[in-house]
Amino acid sequence: MTDAALPNAAANLRQVVEARLKKRHAQEMRFRLYGRMAIIVALSFLALLLGRIVTQGYSTFIDYQIAVPVHLDASRIDKADPTGANYDLLVAESVLAKLGEKDDEFGEKSGKVMEIMSNDLGFQLLKMVREDPTLIGKTITVTGPVKSDAALYFKGQIKRSTPQDSRKLDDQQLDWMDKLKASGAVTSGFNVSFLTNSDSTEPEQAGVLGAIVGSAMMLLVTACLAVPIGVLAATYLEEFAPKNRWTDIIEVNINNLAAVPSIVYGLLGLAVFINWLAVPRSSPLLGGMVLALMALPTIIIATRSALKAVPPSIREAALGVGASRTQTVFHHVLPLAMPGVMTGAILSLAHALGETAPLLMIGMISFVPGVPEGFTGAATVLPVQVFIWENASERGFHERTAAAIIVLLVFMIVMNLAAILVRRRFERRW
Amino acid sequence: MLTWIALTALLLFSLATYMAGRRKALATTGGKSVLLHSLPGYYGSYAALWVGVPAALLILLFAMFGGRLEAGLLRADPPAAVAALTAPQQDVFYDDARAIAHGGQPSETIYAGDLKTALDAKAAKSTQLGDLIQFGSLALGAVLALVGILIAYPRIGPQFRARNKVEGWVAGLFIVCSVTAILTTAGIVASLVWESWRFFQAVPIHEFLFGTEWNPQIAMRADQYAGTGAFGAVPLFIGTFLIMMIAMVVAAPIGLYSAIYLSEYANPLTRSVVKPLLEILAGVPTVVYGFFAALTVGPIFRSFFNWIGAQLAGGSLDGLAQYLMQVQNQMALVAGAVMGIMLIPFVSSLSDDIINAVPQSLRDGSLAMGATRSETVKKVVLPAALPGIMAAMLLAVSRAVGETMIVTMAAGLQAKTTLNPLDTVTTVTVQIVTLLTGDQEFDSPKTLSAFGLGLTLFVVTLMLNIVALRIVQKYREQYD
Fold first, then answer.
1. Where are the domains of chain A?
2. What is the arithmetic mean of pLDDT over B134-161?
3. Closest Cα of chain B to A51: distance in Å?
4. What is the ipTM of this complex?
C-alpha cells in the first residue's frame, strides 16, 4: 500500500460508513414507525369499538309515542268480564278512524295497524278498565310506544327506498305513519321506559331496570363476601403467616387462581353450589357467590401490595409502645393501607360486573320479565341481558343491545372513576 | 324467617354478654382498668364470642343443610308401595311429599290408592321432621349459647389474659379466610374431576382426547354410549388452537410494539395519555367484544371476502372465488381477530412492565457504544427481557384459550377439523356453554362431557400459567 492510497482508502471507508449509517438511521425510523403504527392501530380499534356501539345504540334513547283517543264501546266490552275484549283491535280501529280509513271486512287494515302499534296501548286500556269499569262507554286517550319496526322507520333505519318485499312494513303502513307523524299524534322524546322497564318479549317495551337491579344485588353479595374474606386472607398472609410450606402453597394457589378462566368458576358453581349445596339457580345470591370466588384472588393480590407499601416503621412504632401484633395491624397498618385496598376492591368488582360466562353456567340466562324479587329469586344481570338480546332475532333488539352495553359501560366507567378518585384523594406516599 | 329472628336474638344476647363481661372485669378490680391484664372491652368480647359464634355457626349449618337432613330421614323405612317404584320415581315421590308439606309446587304426577296414603303419610312426616329439625337446631343453639356463658363468664378476672384469647379467635378467622383460597381450588379440582370421572365411565378417556368426531347433540340411548365416536374432542382442540393462533398473530406484534414504543420512545405526555386509553380497552367486558365481533366485524369481513370472490369469479382462480363468495359471518378469523384486539392491552401492559425492569445501565452502555435506539432495543433490551416476554405471551395464550364470550357470540357451533381461518370452527369454551345452558340432566354424558372439557381447559391453562411463572422466577434476578 502506497502513501497515496491512504487518503483514498479513508475516503472510501468514510463512504462505506456513511452509507451504512444512512441505512441504520432508516432502520431506526422504520422501527419507530412500527411502534407508532401499533399504537395507532390499537387506539383506532378502541375508537371503532366504542364508536360502533354508540352509533348503534344511541337511537334507543329516542322513542316515539302515539296518543290515540279510544272509544270504549259498551257493546264490545263485557262489564262483568272486561278481560275478554280485544283492546288491541279497539286501538287499531281508533287509529284507522284518525287516519280517515275504514276497515275492510276481513280486518286486514286493522291487522296492519296492529303491526305498527305496540300492544302496550291495549294493556293500558285493559288495566284502566279493570280498575275503573265505569270508563266503559267513554272515550279516553292512551299514550304508548309504537312498535319497534315503526320506530326504526321514524329513525331512518328502515328506508322507503328498500323494495317493499325486503322490509317489514309495506308502503301503506309507511304512508299511515307519515300521516300520523304529520298530524302530531306521534311525538318523539327521551326514552324513559328503557330505563324503567324490565325485559320483555316486545323490543319497544324492553328495558334494563331489572338487569340493573339484578347486577346491583349480585355485586352486593360479591362485595360482602369477597372484600372481607380477601382483605383478611391477604392480611394474614402478609402480616402474620410464618414462612413455611403451607403458606407457600397458599400463595402459589392464589396466583394460579387469578388466571383460571372464568368459565371454570361457572362449572364450580354448577357442581358445588347448585348440585351440592342446593343454592337456588339463577339467583343473585348464587351469582354473587361465584363471582366472589372469582374476585377473591385479585382482591388478595391488591391488598397485599397495599400492605407492602406501608413502611415497617409504622409497625415498629406501634409494637414499641406495647401494642400487640393484632392491634398493630387493625389500628395502624390496615387503616393506612385502606385506600389501596379500596381501589383494588372497586376495580375487581367492576371486573365482576362485566363478567358473563360463569353466569351462563349457573342458569342466569332465563327470561326474567320483572325486577328480581329477592336474593334467592330468579334474576338477570346487565352483561347477560346484552347476551340474551344479541341472540334475539328482531331487529329492534339490536339497538337495545348496544344501548344496554352503553348503560353497562357507564356503570363500569363510574366504578373506575371512583377507584381513581379514591387513589388520588387518599393515597399517601412515604 | 325463624332463622333470621333467632340470629338477631343471638346477636342481641351476645351484645348483652359483652356488656356484662366488661362490667364484671371492671368490678373485680373495683373499676380500675389498670389492674386488669387486658383492656375491659376484651373481656366483654371474649364472653360475647363464646356465646355468639358456636351457636350462630350451628344455626347457619342447620339452615343450610336441614333440608337435606330432612330428605334423608324421610327416606328411612319406605312403605312397600313406594319401595316398588323405580329410583327416579321415588325421587319424584319424595320431592312431592316435601313440596306438599312445605307449601311448594308438587309435580303433576297422579298418585292413587296405596301410593296416595303413603304420600300423605310421608308429607305429614315431612312437616313433623322439618319442625323437629328447625326447633331442635334453635334449641341446640340456645343451649350452646348458655354453655358459652358458663365457660367464659367464670374465667373473667384480673389475671385472665382476655386479649390473647380474643386474638386467638381472630387468628382462627384469619386462617379460615386464607384457607378459602385453597378450598376454592379444591372445589374446582374436585368438582371437575368427579363429574369428568363419571363422564369417562360412559366415554373412554382416549376416545375423548383422540377421537375426531364431536357431536354430543345426538340423542343418547343406553346402548349407544361407547363406540359412537361422538365425543371426540380433537376438532374442538384444533378450533381453539386456530382461534388462539389468530388472536396471537394480532395481539403479539401490536402489543409488543406498543410496549416498546411506550417505554423506549414515547415522551411522558404521550405515555400518560396512551396508557389509560389502552387500559380502557382492557376494561371493556368480553360480552361487548362479542357483540362487536358478531354484528360489526363479522359482516365487514364477510362482505370483504365476498367482494374479493366476486372480483375473481370467472378467472383462473374460479374455485377459490366460489369458495370466497360463500364465506359466512361466523368464521374463525372474526373471533380470532377480535380476541386479538382484546389481548393487545394485556400483552402490552405485561411487556411494558418487563421492558421497564431491564436496568437502564444496559441501555446506556449500548447507546454509548454508538448503537441506535432501535439496535439497543433489538440487540440488548429485548434479549434481556425475552424470558419475561415469553411468559407474557404464554399468559396471553392462556387467556385466549379460556376466553368464552367472544367465541360463543362470534364463532360457530359446528365442530370441524380444519386450520382454514375462513371456515367455521368451534372451541372448547363454546361447547361448554352450549352443553350447559338450557335443561340439564346430570346423568347424561352430554351434560357431563362439559365437565370433561372444563377439566381439560383447567389443566391446560394451569400448565401455561405454571410454565409462565417458572420462566419469570428463573430469569427474574438475572441483572439485579
1. 61-191, 209-426
2. 89
3. 11
4. 0.89
